[in-house]
Design goal:
Chain lengths: 277, 346
């Protein structure tokens, strides 16, 4: 009995210790590589290649300025943003109605359909690359921003469908029904009640689609030649670049994705809080 | 004038028949309660009237207008939902004014109407809050105010008090009844709580397995149940049943006693409410099993010829488990049911 009485505070302290350790480890796992990336990006080429490494960045902007002046760099950045933007719009335009239908209506084959959505992700893109490239060349979609956005949309749509499905499911049907009895049609009930509640979640899943497109490199490398996106462009060029430029290129790729996710983090939290009420 | 007529409404979900040929007329300004256990079809019927569900067959008329093909917004109804369905992204003010805004009512008028309805429901101090900042009882008030602000012909309520705690429920019950009587709307109120039904209704429709078993005033439903189901469902504790065999014209033998009853040539069920019996020198011999003093009276669970039997007696009486009581049923409170059809026999 006495051990039982003295144990809980000890157990609690141990629990807190484990908890804190886990938090620190997880943070370190994400932050340390990013930190090294930052240091090496902001270091002179000599410092990057030397050993031991410094833990303090030198704030040498040489590598970054090199990229800013690199021919085609800005164009690739523009392409990336256009493709990702288009992907974002198309995957929400297609995914959100599908998510709504999945959460609100019963139809035959509903669960099979949900499985099929996920299965599209199980199909390896490299297998598709050749037929896709041939088809794109025939239809004239090759090396266009729209064509690449189409491919990225097919990659992002499953997530858009599943995220919006869970968002719509989190909004009680009674809220819509109440709106119907208060003078709304199905459409106005959606725009006046469902949409405001779901907007943060839609934004978050749109950003998610953006990041998927932003990070995608395989299709971008295969399907574009002149109009390369940033990832494909850097992949093509970094292969033969010196180490310090590889770091800088990686940094340029990682930072926007990080910033986007950071920007929507409060929506990512808020969307559950609001959707459940 | 908003008389509601439900004509031969039936509803099937796949192979499951949720409603069988419902016919019901609800008078203008009447407070009708649909009462029944869960799964009896009462909510389905309400949702068909609201237009949230379509009837498989049959017609619904409100105020002389057939409405079963119309969208919910065109039916002149307002609804209060079980989980309140207060819009979380709008203030209480905008919630109550939501329907009025949809009608494009001018701002000043919306403000006036919202404030009036809010004060009716005693929530005028909450108008700037969001539903996340309200308690269950306050949300419930907002939901009712939102429905009332529409000044509908018909107000439909789906177990509006079932999520409130007991004390609040009692308070809201009385308040709702008063507010609705004043608003002069026809009300249909769905509940599984018989106390709520008895205390609020002008008329109760008792539903069972997709049918309306009895539609009558609360006291009628209580005193003269139309079927054994109603007798066993209404009243706490419910009615007692015993077998009765014919003992001459209009005479029935019940547990060794002979009572006057209806004329029928076959065995019936004898029924009596627990509070309609008095200890006397002759009557039903009941062996007390459990004695529960409830303050105002004494609830005695006993056995009469092996059948469970309850009596509500005066609390001054001293009864111990094992005692044998002689209970005399009041002659004008005895009821008889046909065991085959389960319907009342008069």
């Amino acid at each position: 009995m006495t051990t039982a009485a003295t144990n809980p505070p000890d157990a609690r302290r141990a629990g807190r210790f484990v908890y804190a350790t886990a938090v620190i480890l997880l943070c370190a796992w994400v932050i340390v590589p990013l930190y090294f990336l930052l240091i090496n990006t902001l270091s002179s080429p000599e410092a990057v290649n030397s050993f031991p490494k410094s833990f303090v960045p030198e704030f040498d902007l040489e590598s970054l300025t090199f990229f800013a002046n690199f021919a085609g760099m800005l164009n690739a950045l523009k392409n990336s943003i256009l493709v990702a933007g288009l992907t974002m719009v198309m995957s929400i335009a297609i995914g959100a109605p599908a998510g709504y239908a999945l959460s609100r209506f019963d139809f035959p084959g509903k669960s099979t359909f949900r499985l099929l959505i996920l299965l599209t992700r199980a199909f390896p893109l490299p297998l598709l690359a050749l037929p896709l490239a041939v088809m794109f060349i025939r239809t004239g979609l090759d090396d266009t921003i729209f064509g690449l956005a189409l491919v990225h949309t097919t990659l992002a749509v499953p997530f858009a469908v599943l995220i919006t499905f869970s968002l719509f499911s989190g909004i009680p049907i009674e809220l819509e029904e109440a709106a119907w009895t208060l003078g709304c049609t199905r459409l106005t009930a959606f725009t006046k009640v469902v949409l405001p509640l779901i907007l943060p979640g839609i934004t978050a899943s749109a950003i998610f689609a953006f990041v998927i497109s932003w990070n995608e490199v395989f299709a971008a490398a295969v399907l574009t030649i002149e109009n390369r996106t940033l990832t494909a462009f850097l992949l093509q060029n970094l292969d033969t670049s010196p180490l310090h430029l590889k770091f800088a290129g990686g940094f340029i790729l990682v930072v926007p994705a990080l910033i986007f996710i950071f920007a929507v983090r409060k929506y990512l939290f808020a969307m559950w809080g609001i959707a459940n009420r | 004038m908003a008389e509601i007529q439900i004509k031969s409404v039936a509803k099937t979900f796949g192979t499951y028949q949720a409603l069988h040929d419902i016919n019901l007329t609800i008078a203008d300004q009447e407070f009708m309660v649909l009462l029944g256990a869960s799964g009896c079809g009462k909510t389905t019927l309400l949702r068909i009237i609201a237009g949230l569900e379509t009837a498989s067959t049959g017609e619904v008329w409100i105020g002389g207008r057939r409405i079963d093909h119309l969208a919910p917004k065109d039916r002149g109804i307002a609804m209060v939902f079980q989980n309140y369905a207060v819009f979380p992204h709008l203030t209480v003010f905008e919630n109550i004014g939501f329907g009025l805004r949809m009608q494009r009512m001018p701002n000043a008028q919306v403000k006036e109407r919202v404030e009036r309805t809010a004060s009716l429901m005693h929530i005028e101090q909450l108008l700037k809050r969001y539903s996340g900042e309200l308690s269950g009882g306050q949300r419930q008030r907002v939901a009712v105010a939102r429905a009332l602000a529409m000044e509908p012909d018909v107000i439909l309520m789906d177990e509006p008090l079932s999520n409130l705690d007991a004390l609040l429920r009692m308070e809201m019950r009385a308040e709702l009844k008063g507010v609705l009587a004043e608003s002069k709307t026809t009300a249909i109120y769905v509940t599984h709580d018989q106390v709520e039904a008895m205390s609020m209704a002008d008329r109760i429709s008792v539903m069972h397995q997709g049918k309306i078993v009895q539609a009558a005033s609360p006291i009628e439903v209580y005193r003269n149940p139309a079927a054994e189901f109603v007798a066993g469902f209404i009243g706490n504790p419910p009615m007692n049943f015993l077998g009765a065999t014919p003992a001459g014209p209009g005479k029935w033998q019940v547990a060794g006693n002979v009572f006057d009853g209806p004329d029928a040539g076959k065995p019936l069920h004898f029924a009596i409410r627990p509070e309609d019996m008095l200890p006397a020198s002759s009557g039903l011999a009941a062996v007390a099993k459990v004695v529960e003093p409830l303050g105002a009276h004494l609830l005695v669970t006993c056995e009469v010829e092996g059948t469970l039997f309850r009596a509500v007696l005066d609390s001054d009486l001293s009864v111990k488990p094992g005692d044998t009581l002689t209970l005399a049923p009041q002659p004008d409170r005895m009821r008889w049911f046909d065991p085959e059809t389960t319907l009342a026999v008069v």
